[in-house]
Amino acid sequence: MAFPWLTTVGLIPLVGALLVLALPGETRRLARPLGVAVSVVTLGVVVVMATRFDVAAAGEHQLLETVSWIPQLGVSYALGVDGLGLLMVALSAFLVPACLLASWGDVADDPDRMRTFTALVLVLETMMIGVFAARDVFLFYVFFEAMLIPMYFLVGSFGGPRARVAAVKFLIYSLVGGLVMLVAVIALYVAGPGGERGFLVTELTGLPLAEGTGRLLFAGFFFAFAIKAPLWPVHTWLPDAAAQAPPGAAVLLVGVLDKVGTFGMLTLCLPLFPEASRWAAPVVIVLAVISILYGALLAIGQSDLMRLIAYTSISHFGFIVLGVFAMTTPGQAGSMLYMVNHGFSTAALFLVAGMLVARHSARSRRIDDYGGMQKVSPLLAGTFLVAGLSSLALPGLSSFVSEFLVLVGTFARYPAAAVAATLGIVLAAVYILWTYKRLFTGPVRPELSLLPDLTAREAWVVAPLLAVILVLGFYPKPVLDALTPAAEQTLEVVGVTDPAPQVTVEGTTP
């Protein structure tokens, strides 16, 4: 085993959290700058680690670490990332400093709460890195459940007036899904070869499972991942949790944690249960299309800005799941790219929404309590508009390429589903442009006329996000080069190939 890059990247924020909690007396006010510094160091190490990754072999797992952890149970401490895993680790490391900077003024008058908030975010970063790097199914489950603890306290202790109810709902949904998956994990181990390395993904891939057994185990894993994603009809926890969470925590919840669901579908459901995945694909495709349309329609009807953004994410996750189970190279590469792009565009939307709410004297989240803000704060309005246009997949912005690939890949195998999903693009234009109109155009409300525009700190938060949105919109090739081999490898393991294009020659039938 070479230098343990992934362990190092995961330990830095954990050690940082301990240092933050250990700050004595008046030095507790240094918790936030210390947390930001630790998260920036983590991001720097991730960048260096990425230079050690061979993009030409992005379909294979690299930076591997494997150590026997609990040999009596067959559990190993096994880490490694392919192209998708590396990008999800990088996304986590990128968003954490942005969230801490954006939350700088939150609970600033209470050093103890500030210290706790910062430590929880850093612990959450360790768990997110671990779940995207785990190559042992049991270790994946440990990180999958451990993420719930810091997020539960971030929502419940630092959120809005109904934060505790939302946090409990989030916890119950996630625990139910996790317990169902745990049963499936144990059953998979029993069906596998056993031994000291019996939970390794490499040992469990390709098991000759009976048809009924494979489908039941697939259902156990998929149920947990569908809740996490979230996919209709097990999505109802997300609008409450995202709306009540502080903006920084909402970004990590929707931008990163929810991606664990679709990440698990790609890296565990499909490779471990190929026959069951092919069998379930038509039903999952229907659920994905319902999520796309349902989330978009409910977003249009929202009066709460935070809930509106949460419902847009349900629609976007429908696109991601659609690409995963279309089981084509363009569809899966597009859904992987969508996971990355959605993280940046949704982060920008949530953070700008949080900045708006923080400026309002009553901290109102009601869209109708705003209006004319583009005259008062044009930079804030412009930032929201760019992030919103990316969310509706405007050409030239990051989400367009990923959404286009998902629809093209889906059309090759499920044309009716692809046609129905395109309605989600039209609905996205409605909810984004109408929301912008209600928030930023029209006459300025008197109580909003003196509100400040973006501050220097806020500009440092949103500028990198907008830069990534623009760069990936015009030049997504480097990211796609890392994702396409991973998509091809997944399809090879599942045992499907891309549908051959049908070409009609005059005088013949296709």
Number of helical stretches of at least 4 residues? 21
How big is the Rg? 22 Å
Helical residue percent? over 70%
Strand neighbour order, sheet with most strands = 1-2
- Tell me the distance between the termini: 53 Å
Low-confidence stretches: none
Biggest beta sheet summary: 2 strands, antiparallel
Task: Compute the number of strand runs.
Answer: 2
Any idea what the shape is? Answer: globular
Coarse structural class: mainly alpha
How would you spell out the order of helices and strands?
HHEEHHHHHHHHHHHHHHHHHHH
Mean pLDDT: 86
How much of the sequence is in beta strands? under 5%
Overview features:
two-stranded antiparallel sheet, 510 residues, mainly alpha, 21 helices, single chain, 3% strand
Reconstruct the topology from this structure:
Layout: H1 5-21, H2 31-51, E1 62-70, E2 75-81, H3 83-102, H4 111-133, H5 137-146, H6 148-158, H7 163-191, H8 201-204, H9 211-228, H10 237-244, H11 247-257, H12 259-272, H13 274-300, H14 305-326, H15 329-359, H16 373-376, H17 378-391, H18 398-413, H19 415-440, H20 456-474, H21 477-494
Antiparallel strand pairs: 1-2
